[in-house]
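Side project, low priority. Logging it here so it doesn't get lost.
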Amino acid sequence: MKEWLAADADARPPDDASLAEGVSCDEAGCVTPMADGAFVTLALRPDALADDCARAVLLVTARQAPANCPSPVIDGDRLRRQGTIALRRTRNGFAVDAVRPKGADRPWSPAVAGDTEVEASLARPTVSRPADATPSEADLQAED
């Protein structure tokens, strides 16, 4: 944590209470709001996964998330595959910068066989919303 803060030019010590402001934790996990009010969750117990999948804009867990989870997930398998990752919020989700990006073949970290697809983002599946068919005030006639 000390190195992360220093890399961000943040002079606070790792035990500074302000680093936990807005973070709410219980035995099942932690939740923190983002600037737009969306939630990022850390699920520590399996019983937290269903609720977190339904509400979080991003779910972090060492456990296996349900296959039908609509939220983007960072799980233990992904961290083992890609190592440490940095996330940046984008319009469509999160951009991912991984220590070992999917498909990268380096002398010190060979690519996994069959792991050739580059995954550079985490996006929540888009849900199409029906178009609003309400006529505008200008289109309404006095007899309508």
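Brief comment: The helical segments are 2-7, 49-55, 76-82.
Revisit when time allows.
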